[in-house]
Amino acid sequence: MLTFYTTSSEGGNTRLRPSFTDNLELTCLHGGNLQAILFFSGTTDAIVKNYRVQADDAIFVTPENFATCYQTGVRLHATALSPAPWWSLNLALVGIYSHYSWHQNDGGARVKNSLFTPILGTTNRFALALTWSAELVANYQGRMVYGQAIVHPMLEVNLGLRKTILKGQGSVALFVKDLLNTKHENIDMPVNDGLARTRSDFKLRVLGISFSWYLKKGINTKEKTPKTGTDEMKRVNL
Fold first, then answer.
1. DSSP structural state of residue 167
2. Tens digits of per-residue pLDDT, 164-198?
3. For residue 69, which of 20, 34, 27 has the smallest C-alpha distance?
4. Are 115 and 147 in contact (CB under 8 A)?
């Protein structure tokens, strides 16, 4: 029979050991706008939240040292793409395999938890008219493991609309954060013969308006080091 636990408490751990991580990356650039990265990360004594059932059937959450953790995968970035004259597009695609292993109940049986996770991020800018523009940002993360836990997929969509005013000296923007109200963190934790489940609502759905006014136009200057597509890749790097 599958049991669902709904009560939990959280505490610290003074016996934690330091964790050490080795990172290895291989990067390939093409044309200043395309980037591919193969990566590997290995951690010993990884510090991760641990979930245990107490005598009163409540879940006690505390950080613990897991035996090993490694992650490997690929990151792909494409910046300054132009599917249409009025559309500018940046893309980031990540495929990551995460693997955790640890001994259950201080020296008990060895347990493993691993999963492949797709992550997609996109930034779209649209020139609607001479003084109007819009921006659409979407980020999606598939199912991911974190120690014992399995984090459900998450999606966030942000939308903005901007109007240039005062002969280009100012602008008014209307924006919506988490447009679809979908950024909720749902986590499952297998414990003993049961399942602990948590849900976090970040309450980040926001509607706002902003006004910008440039008091002085200033003098045009040239940058000593012109920006390239690589700079934009760093900005959207996941």
1. G
2. 888 778 889 999 998 888 888 888 877 666 667 77
3. 20
4. no
